[in-house]
Each structure stands twice: as structure tokens, then as C-alpha cells.
Write a structure and sequence with these properties.
The protein is built from 18 helices and no strands. By secondary structure, the protein is mainly alpha-helical. Helix 1 packs antiparallel against helix 2 and helix 6 packs parallel to helix 8. The longest helix is centred in the last third of the chain and has 30 residues. The chain is elongated and about 95 Å long. The N terminus is likely disordered.
């Protein structure tokens, strides 16, 4: 619904004095059915870091006038700041439906689509943002992350390198590049970006974790243990560090520690495939074959194409079948005597 009353000429805020919030409060009292006043009040409150109050004010503006794209964009932004992501998504899409096409809206929609795992839509909106300004490092980072999520590492690498060429201090681009190189098995290149950023911020747990992965994958197990433990000491809910540490302890044949940290990962995410795989391997090694098989079955329910688990589960089932055959023959032989 449109505003029920809109004055022909809005008075300037300066007419009410120098205090912006006081001025807009006077304006809303004088013209209580004017949506623009609530929109402006929301902007003032936002700039004062009063996010909840800003949300209340812009919500009022939208309630009064639902046809302004910039209102819905601001509403979406305030929802994001108040951790209401579903509502933010709806408001941003409503802004777009009202033909709003701004850099800020495309950036926001790109982030929301990426968080929602709608990668192509995220990429489309990043490209629209880049058309408006091709020299923003953050948007090349967004594009790189979208392409990486779409399993296009070469194209993602190109975008991320472009982001770093525009902003050499971008930690996000360095982290994403390190991930690409780690997945590719290019540990030397990964460590270039990891060590560069750790030199500037030694306590960055994401880079400490990635360095631990690089060390583990190159057989440097003791340094990797130290790094993963440091991550956990800084954030005791860093799930990936638990699962990696469990896997490393398994490789070191320290089964109690491997079990402890793998269970720690599963406490945080019961679908952590690496932790489930370590638990399957531990139980297989300790001859708890049916328990091991149960862990492999859990992995198959999550990802039936997980190749290490497919192969190991097949071998385990063969082992169980052979042991059952031996047990049956043994029982048959004893009863025949």
C-alpha cells in the first residue's frame, strides 16, 4: 500500500536543527504517515550502529509503502545485520522484483545466493556487479568463491588472483586460493599464501588450520598435530581441526587419540565424512568389523561415491564374509565329530 499522506514538499532536516535523530523524530511526529521519514530515520539509526532500531524503522517504512525498491534493499541489509538471513533474502528479491538494479543489491544477492548454495544465481549477480564496477576486489573474490563452489577451480583461481592484484591485503582471496591449491595438491603454492598471511596475523585460525593440512599431506605429521591442536586451543568448536587431527593420529597409530578427536568432530557434525572414515578404520584395525561396517554405511548414506569408503567397505564386507564362512565350517566340522 502506498503512503496515505505525502506532503508536496518534504521539509529539510536542517529546518529542525543540527541533531539528525532529533530532527527526524520531529518530522515523523509532524508527518506520521510519511514513509520517507521512517526510511531516513532508519538510515540515521544505522549510521549510529543501532541495528535493531534501524530494522524497526525501515520495517515501518515498508509497511507504509511496499513499492520502493530502495526500502526493501535497506530492509534486507538490516535483516542481515540482525542475523535474519531468510527474511533478508526475501527482502532483497523483492527489491529486485521492483526493478532496483544497484551495485549494493547485486552484491547482497550474490552473497545470499552463495550462502544458499545457489551458485549459478550467485555468479550471475556477481557478474552484474562487476559490470557496474570492474575494479572492486571484493567482487572478484565473490566471483572466485562462486566458481570454486561450482567446481571450476581454474576459473576461480583467475578471479582470485585478480582480486589480489586489486587488493594485495585481501585475506579472503588468499584463503580461497590456498584452498584451491590444497585441493590440487600444490602444497608449495598453498604455503606461499598461508605463510604470507600468518606473518601478518599469526593467530588466524583458518590459516593455521590450512597450514596443518599442508603439513599433514606432505607427511610432516608432528608439525601438523601441533598446528591442529593450536587451532582447537583457540576455538574448541573448530570441527575440521578435530577430524584432521583424528586422521593424523590414526596415521601415527595412536588409536585412542584418533578416536577421541574423531568423536570430537562428530559431536560437532555427525556427518563429518573424514571423522566417520577414521572411526571406520580404527574399528576395522581393532577387529570390531561390524562397528566398522556401520561407520562405512553412514558414509555411503551421505555420499555413495566417496571412493576411499567404497573400496574399503567392499574389502571389509569380503573380510566379514570370509570370517563367517570359516566360522560356519568350523561349527560344521565340530558338529560332525
Amino acid at each position: 500500500a502506498c503512503d496515505s499522506y505525502q506532503p508536496d514538499k518534504m521539509p529539510a532536516l536542517e529546518d529542525y536543527g543540527n541533531n539528525e535523530l532529533m530532527a527526524i523524530n520531529i518530522a515523523t511526529q509532524k508527518y506520521p504517515r510519511t514513509s520517507t521519514n521512517y526510511y531516513k530515520k532508519g538510515l540515521i539509526l544505522w549510521n549510529m550502529d543501532k541495528r535493531k532500531e534501524a530494522l524497526q524503522s525501515i520495517s515501518k517504512a515498508v509497511e507504509m509503502n511496499d513499492s520502493r525498491g530502495e526500502y526493501h534493499l535497506f530492509l534486507a541489509q538490516t535483516y542481515v545485520e540482525n542475523d535474519s538471513m531468510k527474511a533478508a533474502f526475501e527482502a532483497a528479491k523483492r527489491a529486485e522484483s521492483l526493478a532496483l538494479d544497484t551495485l549494493a543489491l547485486n552484491e547482497l544477492l550474490a552473497d545470499l545466493y552463495l550462502d544458499n548454495k545457489e551458485h549459478q544465481s550467485a555468479l550471475d549477480h556477481v557478474n552484474m556487479a562487476l559490470e557496474k564496477d570492474p575494479n572492486l576486489a571484493e567482487n572478484h573474490l565473490r566471483k572466485g568463491n562462486s566458481l570454486s563452489a561450482m567446481k571450476q577451480p581454474e576459473a576461480a583461481e583467475e578471479s582470485l588472483l585478480k582480486a589480489l592484484s586489486l587488493d594485495s591485503e585481501s585475506p579472503g582471496a588468499s584463503k580461497s586460493l590456498a584452498d584451491i591449491y590444497l585441493q590440487r595438491g600444490d602444497y608449495d603454492n598453498a604455503l606461499v599464501y598461508i605463510d604470507k598471511n600468518l606473518a601478518k596475523n599469526p593467530g588466524d585460525i583458518d590459516f593455521l588450520y590450512k597450514k596443518g593440512v599442508a603439513k599433514a599431506e606432505t607427511g610432516q605429521l608432528n608439525p601438523s598435530v601441533d598446528l591442529f591442536r593450536e587451532v582447537i586451543s583457540k576455538d574448541d568448536e573448530y570441527e575440521l581441526a578435530y577430524s584432521k587431527l583424528g586422521a593424523v593420529y590414526y596415521r601415527k597409530r595412536k588409536m585412542d587419540s584418533a578416536r577421541y578427536f574423531s568423536n570430537g568432530a562428530l559431536r560437532l557434525d555427525d556427518q563429518d565424512i573424514e571423522a566417520l572414515l577414521t572411526m571406520a578404520r580404527i574399528n576395522d584395525r581393532q577387529k570390531a568389523y561390524w562397528v566398522s561396517l556401520n561407520y562405512y554405511d553412514k558414509i555411503m548414506a551421505i555420499d555413495s561415491t566417496h571412493s576411499p569408503s567404497v573400496e574399503e567397505r567392499k574389502k571389509l564386507r569380503g573380510k566379514i564374509a570370509w570370517l563367517q564362512y570359516l566360522e560356519k565350517n568350523k561349527s560344521g566340522g565340530e558338529s560332525g565329530e
